[in-house]
Amino acid sequence: MKKYALMLLTALGTLPLSAIFTPAKAEITIATYNMTHANKNDGKNREAGNCEVIKELNADFYCLQEVIRDKNQLQSIKDALPGYLYIGEPRNSKLKRSFAGAYFRSFFAQDEYTPIFYNPKKVDLISSETFGINVKGQYLPRACTVGQFKEKTTKKELYIYNTHLDNKEEDSRIMQTNIIIDDIKQRCGTMPVILTGDFNTAFAGEMKKNFSDVNFTHAKEIAAKTEGPSVTHEKSNKQLTEIDHILIKPKNNFRIKLYKVLNTMGKKTSDHNPVSMTFSLK
Q1: Of the candidates 186, 191, 235, 172, which has an alpha carbon nearest to the alpha carbon of residue 41?
Q2: I want to staple 133 with a disulfide (CB 3.0 to 4.6 A). Which of 7, 155, 176, 271 is the partner?
């Protein structure tokens, strides 16, 4: 026993102190992916392809949009991610009844989720909530899912937000982001925050200013490496856009190794490309 202990000490003595005492840096991959609603755009026929995309992403967190229970969509995701858990409630549950026509609009909402699937072998869930981001005059209800997580190796904590903003009006999107920003201010303090989702708009103009004013940075801007196309969605008029994003705050808390867009959109997969980020917390 003493012999093996001596050998270990000798081996450690040949290493620089930084190699012995440097804290672990656990890499995490997070992805955002609009799956395409199972009840629209031939969504059911996209199920198998979308599940293959999910597996290819090989992420620790999957922040998804346009997910419903109908047509087996939610269950197919669970089947594609054995061992993963998820947080998130349907957006219908977050309707503000004071809005005129809320019950009428809820018929069209189809109980859509913005779930966050996570790997419990990599992180522990501390808390979670789904809150409404409805604004007056908006046709469909919208919601945001938030989770507080602790990385198992480093014990570092972070918040992850996942949302799907209005697809019609920029003014509505700005008001929705203000609701999310207010929640982040009240909930997160100085802790690291990631905000993902389908913003239905480019990260530019007033939208960019709104987030920059509260110290959010687009992850792509500080990534050590970027891969894939800038396009993340093809609209019905064939216009190609970048509307799916990953934002971080504060940037000094993140070491981003890779920001990647997978070029997978097609008739047998979603009409969105997934976006992923591989990072560690400083």
Answers
A1: 235
A2: 176
Residue 15 lies in a domain: no
**Domain residues for 88?**
26-281
Q: What is the pTM of this model?
A: 0.88
Residues 50, 30: Cα–Cα separation, whole Å:
17
- CA gap 204, 173 in Å, rounded: 13
Evaluate whether 88 touches 145 at the Cβ level (below 8 Å): yes
The tens digit of pLDDT for each residue in 46-68 reads 999 999 999 999 999 999 999 99
DSSP code of residue 71: G
| DSSP class per residue in 232-249 | -EE-TT--EE--EEEEEE
* DSSP designation for 272: B
**Is residue 12 in a domain?**
no
65 in a domain, yes or no?
A: yes
Query: Measured between alpha carbons, how far is 35 from 43 in angstroms, rounded to an integer?
Result: 9
User: Is residue 208 a part of any domain in this protein?
Assistant: yes
Residue 167, helix vs strand vs coil: coil
Q: Facing residues of 123 across strands?
A: 151
The CATH number that applies at residue 63 is 3.60.10.10
* Letter string b/e over residues 199-216, b meaning 16 or more CB atoms within 10 A of that residue's CB: bbbebeeebeebbeeeeb
**pLDDT for res 207:** 97
**Residues across the chain:** 282
**How far, CA to CA in Å, does 89 sit from each of 75, 131, 133?**
15, 9, 13
| Cis, bond preceding 250 (omega within 30 deg of 0) | yes
CB neighbours of residue 44 within 10 Å: 15
Which residues of the chain register pLDDT less than 70? 1-24, 41, 94-110, 137, 139
pLDDT digits (tens, 9 = 90+) for 223-249: 999 999 999 998 877 788 999 999 999
Contact (Cβ atoms closer than 8 angstroms) between residue 198 and residue 243: yes
